[in-house]
Design brief:
The complex is a heterotrimer. In chain A, the strands form three sheets. An eight-stranded mixed β-sheet of chain A has the order 7-6-8-9-10-11-12-13, sandwiched between helices. A three-stranded parallel β-sheet of chain A has the order 3-4-5. In chain A, 41% of the residues lie in helices and 17% in strands. Chain A starts with a helix and ends in a 14-residue tail after the last strand. In chain A, strand 12 and strand 13 form a beta hairpin. In chain A, helix 2 packs across helix 11 and helix 8 packs across helix 9. Chain A contains 13 helices and 13 strands. By secondary structure, chain B is mainly alpha-helical. In chain B, 73% of the residues lie in helices and 1% in strands. Chain B has a two-stranded antiparallel ribbon. In chain B, a hairpin with a 2-residue loop joins strand 1 and strand 2. The C terminus of chain B is likely disordered. Chain C has a two-stranded antiparallel sheet with strand order 1-2. In chain C, helix 2 packs across helix 10, helix 3 packs antiparallel against helix 4 and helix 4 packs antiparallel against helix 9. Chain C is built from 14 helices and two strands; from the N terminus they run H-H-H-H-H-E-H-H-H-H-E-H-H-H-H-H. Classes of the chains: A alpha/beta, B mainly alpha, C mainly alpha.
Chain lengths: 420, 292, 334
């Protein structure tokens, strides 16, 4: 073997010399990444496997189904949307690899709806350095709304502080003397909800603040503490599984307080899956939440999304995640249409910042050059006899947590849900 | 005070499940001198079998029996098919094969059943009895405690009072001598694996109805905590597993209730460090002579 | 003096090799180099002293956090920040290694495994309890391509260069250590603690020392990851990652540095390669296969590999080498 070594090094050097010009050199390419005459390729990172896959893996499937529907109708400005979904198992290390592969190998036009706060945080700086549009991040962290620092990053979810403030406002309007408590996840989700609630009721006015860790599926200690603190309104910053567990654990203790739940953990069909179809209507009766997407059953968006779900998503269970995924797809299609006949990364970001996008929410989108948050207003929903629908005021929440009631302004469905 | 009693009661039932799973790790360590890293995935597979049977027949008890049988068969199969083919007295290949098995089983379960949580309903009410205004153990908690106690007593009798138990111990501690004395050592090791995984499956079957639902990762945290418990108690000691299991269950419950949920893993780590600093072989360590 | 020379040659070849790779592969190379540093430390620890650590990911994380905070604190030129960061990574991981080593000196195999496993599980809790930035972790400074090179190479390639050089600096002392008196002492302790004690070798000190020697390269590996990703999060150093380090060490053959390199490349590239293959399969296999099939095949391959060659990949095709190092290879089989 030894004799071959010089030969091999020589070969390596030759390859290296060749490659200097071929592979690794930066710059030089004039065309727009991910855009051809008849396709636009975009990518995302989602938890398709691992503990976070339950529920969340349905989002990208719904988005993909919506894009298939758009493509079947001729695409956007004559281009089909190709949606590359990479699994990151909710592991930040895997996210970094997945997103780098999307950007450098697959040369995607944009990253759309990357899911999760810890996961997406890990690629935020990278996407910024590469100048890749980072649209509609699937998380309610405030991190995504920093237009001065991250020029290309835009949030999609209403942020957690907004949701917490709106929930607390509704609770105090219903009963000014209610004893309010918070149960939150032990990360910025729970912290954001708590911050929003305290902005309304005053700091240190909460009777009890408990937190849980996703790795431990047991809320007995937390619910017991809230029960003994005499909580009447429990604001939850919990993901769906833990909302169900909180409600179920309390019911086992014969305790039936009011539940005010953040939109990320208040999807009725998903909760009913955990609690069982027989118990869910009873236990979740009167559960308050907030939302901003067209989730009302029987609405025109609802009908369209159900049809797309049947035709392009193999009739997968239709839940809030389905509506979420398709709404994201719709918003991207709208942004792409507005980016012009020859879209560039700059024109795409400019289209979102223009403030002309309408989305499909029940309140206006708030994107502008100075604001990269999608929704600053949310509508109150209530569960009644197993049906979750808008049933209360719509609140707009300012940056400092001041809450004002506004009128809902739902976006009508046009052109069969295909922007352009 | 109310809160203290409540947290103690909540910790007791969790501790019993922990102790049972830790005991299963002790059994396989005693019979085969390996720490089975695939114990959680194998138990999860057994619970899926139980879930399928309960869904088909509507009987919790038929599902429970199936789960235990599936666990035993899986344990024996893994020993016969995989572990036996590895070189003896080299712990690492066994650990690597177990890690590979975890990947295969969990991915296989996710492909077959999807990543969703499937709610499992307990056979008894989870509504706690209220004593003096404090909610304490529920009927299901009592069932858990009784089941764990029965299995632990049964295993203790089997190992200490029967000839089969004597053979099992002989095969584990002195395989060469046992073989000379006519004990079929390979069969004993396979039996030890079967017993161990069946016990782990029972622990998992008791745990899952109190959690969000069955999924391929439902037993992961139980395994990690139970491994800590087994180490704290002494890997050779069933009594240590029981003691440390209950103790850790109480500790986690109290820390979660009084401090926060995220402090619980740190508390377990601290307890473990403390115990190992004082007694490197665990609380109820076996005599040094045998291990030197 | 042959070892440093050989290390220098290999480093130069590896740096040259980066020209043959596109940016994504260079990123993977940097990741593999980070793993290599950690796995080399682990393989020496397990192979020579028989102490199984399941917690090397935490040692990497310690190095990563040390690097991120120290390098961010330096308000000076990039090389200085880099140097200070690396120093901090080595110190922090070395101290943690010292603590673990002190515990390890008293514990036998599975007990040490249990302690280090609990350590991995406690990392996210520690990150949110200590001022380490919780789930979002700490941000590490970005090291752009130096002016002189910026026309020639992309940032991924520059980071791959840094990764290769740091990994070489981390691993070379380990090789020297292993073949010297310290290595002899470690093997003596592994063979027979009582006998080594009689010949004046203190097993406790040897074990502790081995843990520190193994922790420092792991910490530097963490620093490499921090450079490549500009981020240290507890989620990136979880149980799966920690176990994959063990898998890499064993797949490559315990005690073998070359094997550590093979193993690190395998655990970095193989899951990704299988995913690529799955992507080629018709999409109508359904969502469920996505990601899962890769894990399943990887696991099955791992089992098959271990059953076929329990000694690891590095022991396979090189009978001459086996002969030359007959003594260490028999001891490392335990």
């Amino acid at each position: 073997m030894r004799n071959f070594r010089p030969l091999r090094s020589a070969a390596a050097l030759a390859a290296a010399a060749l490659a200097v010009t071929a592979c690794s050199t930066p710059g030089g390419d004039e065309s727009v990444p991910g855009v051809t005459d008849d396709t636009v390729t975009i990518g995302t990172h989602q938890p398709l496997t691992g503990p976070a896959a339950a529920g969340y893996s349905a989002i990208s499937a719904a988005t993909a189904a919506y894009f298939e529907y758009v493509n079947a109708k001729g695409g956007i400005n004559g281009r089909d949307i190709e949606y590359l979904v990479k699994d990151d198992a909710y592991d930040p290390a895997a996210t970094q690899t997945a997103v780098r592969e999307l950007v450098t190998e697959d040369e995607v036009f944009a990253i759309v709806n990357g899911l999760g706060t810890p996961t997406h945080t890990s690629v935020l700086d990278y996407l910024d350095q590469q100048g890749v549009p980072d649209l509609f991040v699937s998380s309610g962290s405030l991190t995504w709304n920093q237009p001065r620092v991250y020029e290309n990053t835009f949030a999609f979810n209403a942020d957690y502080v907004t949701e917490g403030a709106a929930l607390a406002q509704y609770a105090t309007e219903q009963d000014p003397d209610a004893v309010i408590c918070v149960l939150g996840q032990d990360d910025d989700y729970g912290a954001g909800i708590t911050e929003g609630v305290e902005a309304v009721v005053g700091s240190n006015e909460l009777a009890e603040v408990q937190e849980y860790s996703v790795s431990s599926e047991d809320l007995t200690a937390q619910i017991g503490a809230m029960m003994s603190a005499g909580c009447e309104v429990n604001v939850l910053g919990t993901i769906n599984g833990f909302t169900a567990m909180a409600v179920g654990t309390a019911a086992q203790m014969e305790w039936f307080p009011k539940w005010f739940v953040s939109s990320s953990g208040a999807d009725y069909p998903t909760l009913a899956g955990y609690l069982g179809e027989d118990l869910a209507p009873v236990l979740l009766q009167g559960m308050v939440s907030v939302n901003y997407l067209p989730s009302s059953a029987g609405g025109e968006w609802d009908a369209l999304f159900r049809q797309i779900n049947d035709e392009y998503n193999d009739g997968a269970p239709y839940t809030g995640n389905t509506i979420f995924g398709m709404s994201v797809g719709h918003l991207f299609a709208e942004a792409l249409a507005a980016a012009g006949d020859d879209p560039t990364r700059e024109s795409l970001v400019a289209a979102v910042e223009s403030g002309d996008l309408v989305g499909n929410g029940i309140v206006p989108l708030s994107y502008s050059a100075d604001d990269h948050a999608a929704y600053r207003a949310v509508g109150v929903t209530v569960v009644n006899e197993g049906v979750q629908d808008y049933a209360g005021p719509v609140y707009e929440v300012a940056a400092g947590g001041q809450v004002t009631a506004i009128e809902a302004s739902p976006v009508p469905l046009e052109n069969e849900g295909i922007p352009g | 005070m109310d809160r203290f009693v409540f947290l103690l009661a909540a910790g007791l039932a969790r501790g019993a499940v922990l102790a049972l799973f830790a005991l299963s790790l002790v059994i396989v360590w005693r019979t085969a001198r390996v720490v089975n890293f695939a114990q959680a995935a194998m138990a999860a597979a057994a619970v899926y079998a139980a879930f399928a049977v309960t869904a088909a027949t509507g009987s919790y008890w038929a599902g429970l029996a199936t789960g235990l049988a599936a666990g035993a068969v899986l344990g024996a199969a893994v020993e016969r098919g995989l572990m036996r083919r590895l070189p003896a007295h080299a712990p690492l290949p066994g650990i690597i094969v177990a890690i590979g098995l975890v990947m295969v089983l969990q991915a296989g379960l996710a492909i077959a059943f999807g990543p969703e949580h499937r709610p499992m309903h307990p056979p008894f009410s989870q509504r706690p009895f209220v004593i003096g205004g404090v909610p304490v153990l529920s009927p299901y908690d009592l069932f858990t405690l009784a089941a764990a106690a029965a299995v632990m007593t049964g295993l203790a009798l089997l190992f200490n009072r029967t000839t089969l138990g004597l053979r099992l111990r002989a095969a584990a501690f002195a395989p060469e001598t046992a073989r000379l004395a006519g004990v079929r050592v390979p069969r004993m090791v396979a039996l030890g694996w079967a017993l161990s995984v069946a016990a782990a499956s029972l622990a998992a079957l008791l745990l899952v109805p109190t959690e969000l639902g069955l999924n391929p990762h439902a037993v992961d945290l139980l395994f990690v905590n139970a491994f800590a418990v087994a180490v704290i108690g002494g890997l050779d000691s069933p009594a240590g597993a029981l003691l440390a299991g209950i103790g850790t269950g109480l500790l986690v419950s109290l820390v979660t209730g009084y401090a926060s949920a995220s402090a619980a893993p740190l508390a377990v780590l601290a307890l473990m460090t403390l115990v190992l600093l004082v007694r490197p072989g665990g609380l109820l360590a076996a005599k040094e002579a045998r291990t030197a | 003096m042959r070892t440093p020379l050989r290390a220098l040659l290999l480093t130069v070849i590896a740096v040259g090799g980066t020209f043959g790779l596109d940016p994504f592969r260079n990123y993977q190379l940097a990741t593999a180099a980070a793993c290599f540093a950690a796995v080399a430390g682990l393989t020496v620890l397990v192979g020579l002293t028989g102490q199984l650590s399941l917690g090397h990911a935490v040692l990497m994380a310690a190095g990563g956090y040390g690097f991120a905070y120290a390098a961010s604190a330096v308000d000076g030129p990039a090389p200085l920040a880099l140097l200070v960061g690396l120093l901090a990574a080595a110190v922090v991981s070395g101290l943690l290694g010292l603590l673990l080593g002190a515990a390890a000196a008293r514990l036998r195999g599975p007990y040490l495994a249990g302690l280090t496993l609990a350590l991995v599980i406690a990392l996210p809790a520690a990150a949110s309890t200590l001022p380490l930035g919780g789930d979002q972790g700490a941000r590490a400074p970005f090291f752009p391509v130096p002016e002189a090179l910026s026309a020639l190479i992309a940032v991924e390639q520059w980071h791959a260069w840094l990764a290769i050089v740091i990994a070489a600096l981390a691993v070379t002392p380990l090789v020297v250590l292993r073949s010297g008196r310290a290595g002899l002492r470690m093997r003596a302790v592994l063979d027979d603690e009582t006998a080594s004690r009689l010949s004046g070798v203190d097993p406790g000190r040897v074990k502790t020392g081995a843990f520190v020697a193994s922790a420092v390269p792991a910490g530097l590996g963490g620093a490499v990851l921090a450079i490549a990703t500009q981020q240290v999060t507890p989620g990136g150093y979880g149980l799966a990652f920690s176990l994959s380090l063990v898998v890499a060490a064993v797949a490559g053959g315990l005690g073998s540095i070359g094997g550590a390199a093979i193993g690190s490349v395998l655990v970095t590239v193989l899951p990704w390669a299988v995913d690529e293959l799955v992507a080629l399969a018709p999409a109508d296999l359904g969502q469920r296969l996505d990601g899962n099939l890769a894990v399943l095949l990887f696991g099955a391959g791992l089992i098959a590999l271990t059953l076929a060659w329990p000694g690891g990949l590095a022991r396979l095709p090189r009978p001459a080498r086996l002969l030359r190092f007959a003594t260490p290879s028999t001891t490392t089989e335990r």
